TrEMBL record:
One of its GO terms (molecular function) is ATP binding. This is ABC transporter ATP-binding protein. Belongs to the ABC transporter superfamily. The lineage of its organism: Bacteria, Bacillati, Bacillota, Bacilli, Lactobacillales. It comes from Lactobacillus melliventris. Pfam families: ABC_tran. Residues 4-237 form the ABC transporter domain. Keywords: ATP-binding, Cell membrane, Membrane, Nucleotide-binding, Translocase, Transport.
Amino acid sequence: MSYLSLDDVSYSYDNKNNAVESVNLEFELGEAVAIIGQNGAGKTTTVKMMNGLIRPDKGRVLLDGKDTKGISVAQLSHHVGYVFQNPDEQIFQDSVEKEIAFSLKKQKLPQTEITTRVKDAARLCHLDNKLNEHPYNLPYSQRKFVTIAAIIAMNPEVMVFDEPTAGQDHNSIIRLNKIIKKLTSMHKLVITITHDMSFVVNNFKRVIVFAQAHKQKEGSPAEIFSDESLLRKSKLEPPVIGQLAKKLGFSNVLTVTDLLRVVN
Ligand SMILES: Nc1ncnc2c1ncn2[C@@H]1O[C@H](COP(=O)(O)OP(=O)(O)OP(=O)(O)O)[C@@H](O)[C@H]1O
């Protein structure tokens, strides 16, 4: 049995058009999974069903075998952490330290445990020298890491990152790679929505494609980016390196490492 399952879920915001329709998904702990698709494809609606922010109109969400229908969002947040697309919807404390510690204090954890968790999460997110700063004095990129650190400190089994690469520079994307690797090595399930196809091929072995409210396909990056009709239907393009390699006559190239292999 999978740790997290979406069993034939559908959801409509207006009772007319389904934002998500008849989606089935299974996830295991220790996996890193990317969800991709055009704007409006249904990705965010789907992940919000995982932590109860949205309840399916039809179908079930199962966590560790239990239907989440009767579990409150507050209870679910101990198991499924969700980092919002926009950090400013999540941040409301006046220091980075308080923001990361907020949920831990609400759980009434011992102060020594809170201090350790805040320090560890801040270090992983390169915020250890920013703990006393007001989050709104930090640039957008670092505010996003504040929200990521706050979820990591809560230590849920599942972490959902909605568009973590948006507005991030090269070094921040490398930091995200490291965070995802560290979390999966700790047996966490990491689910990431992203529009950055290079980030997808460099970090995820499993990719799920959404278009027009449906899951279209899931598979390895190679399976997804070699499926021309899927890419056309979903209005997706392979990462730039793959597009360049194709123009040069090389197939099955998705990363710089792949390209070096075929040109050498
Ligand atoms: N709060 C809302 N009220 C009404 N309709 C909504 C709301 N949020 C999303 N929708 C609609 O539901 C559909 C799916 O949206 P969703 O945000 O899940 O897509 P997405 O794939 O995450 O897109 P993006 O990449 O832009 O975040 C779209 O048609 C969108 O316009």
